[in-house]
Amino acid sequence: MVVPAEHFLSGLPGGAMLLPGQQFQCEQLQRAVHPQMHGPMKFVHMPQDWTIQSQPFYSADSYSYRESFWMTDDAADSTTQGSHSEADQSNDSQDWEPSPRWPQLTNSAARRLRRKRVADRFTKQLTTMEACPSYGQDLLTGGPCSDPPAPCLDAEMLSDLQLKLSEDGRKGVEDALAAIRGQVWSLAGDPKGCRVVQLALERASQQEASELVLELRGHVQEAATSPHANYVIQKVVSQLTFSAASFVAEELAGSCARLARHRFGCRIFCRLLEFFSTQSSTLQLVEELLGETQELCCHSFAHHVMQAVIENGNQRHCKLVVAALLTNPLAFAQDKNASYLVKFAFRYSCQEDNRVLLAQLSHPDAIAALAISQYGCHVVRALMEVEELDTQAVLHIIRQIMPQLRETKRGQRLLVDLGLEPDSF
Asked: Which of 318, 320, 347, 343 is nearest to 333 (CA)?
């Protein structure tokens, strides 16, 4: 990494060196030297007419903080004139001495750094989108950005409406419904407004609620990926009859796999399977999803939808999900997300599939691999609840690998849960 020596010194305590004609944009230069930066830093002198800028970035592989330097366009022409000769660079590097290697980041520090990186990136995206409303594609939804318009009601008015819906009886409900008519979509995208709409759907009659949700037609996919409006769509599914809420399933068709992978969109499918699992439009959505069963089973959000299919779907759909798990049950049982589905498969699958799954996961090598695995140990607990399993044989296998299990906290917890160690937590 090449850092201008003058600029580096200007960031050190007590340093204030900055050559004339140079602009340097950087937050606290002290951070230019980070404990995770292993290896040499070479300080070189740069021509005075260069304009230097600095931008921090994080390396995804080492989570380390670095500084990248580049020339601005107005200084690009002076590149060849301002470059040092190899002899000069060689002289500059003679005084360099390697710094000692610093220890790696702890897991908690790495997590904090990852969260900060995501937050910084998200803030930058929001700033760009506010400056340019037509900016690119929505990174969360994979589609065009189309947020609900801002509601006309201020926070105080929304609080009054929420109070009327909660405490003022039938007259208050009617007044509140009159106030929000024509603004349901805009309120659904507001943090406080979405609560008012949800409460209105709870307190209104079926006829009144059906009239209100007409304003949400054509916006289901946008609402499903909104951090606030998705709760309104869930309330529509849970409170209204299918005839009034059928438009939700109809508008999700064609984008099921994408929305099932969304942190908010997956919730809509779970509600549909919970309340309208036998309706033809819901069954069509499930058919569309099952085209990517294995991928969705391992996805951090979509696996919740697959779990809802196992729990609430019809027998055929449940069997198809379990069949996908049976293609490689040991691998799925050790996956961070699919391991939950394996646990539920023991509980909800038919007897035939249950026997096949049990046969694949109950042999000694599989039991040992699962017990040591970070996520497979949860499947071992689920196996112990299966009546057909020889639990004493499983415990015998676990005893053989107890030294390995004692090396990790999850292994120690498994031994306690199985009654092989006293509870010391």
From this structure: 343
- Cβ–Cβ under 8 Å, residues 172 and 165: yes
Alpha helices in 132-204, H assignment, sequence order: 155-167, 169-180, 184-188, 193-203
Question: What pTM did the predictor assign?
Answer: 0.65
- Tokens found for residue 207: 């006829």
Q: Taking the CA atoms of 191, 197, 203 and 206 in sequence, report the sign of the dihedral they define.
A: negative
Give the DSSP letter string of 251-265: HHTT-HHHHHTSTTH
CA distances from 115 to 3, 75, 106, 109, 399 (A): 27, 36, 14, 10, 39
Decide if 252 contacts 243 (C-beta within 8 A). no
Nearest to 405 by CA among 378, 377, 375: 377
Rounded CA gap, 325 and 332, in Å? 6
State the Cα–Cα distance between residues 307 and 343, nearest whole angstrom.
Answer: 10
Number of other CB atoms surrounding residue 326 within 10 Å: 17
The whole-chain average pLDDT of the chain stands at 77
Mean pLDDT by 10 residues, the chain (425 residues): 45 41 41 41 42 38 35 39 42 43 67 75 58 42 52 81 84 90 93 94 94 96 96 97 96 96 97 96 96 96 97 95 95 96 93 92 94 94 90 92 93 92 74
Kind of pairing, strands 65-71 and 52-58?
A: antiparallel
What is the spatial distance between Cα 290 and Cα 323, in angstroms, rounded to a whole number? 11
Contacts of 327 (CB under 8 A, 6+ apart): 294
222, 251 Cβ separation under 8 angstroms: no
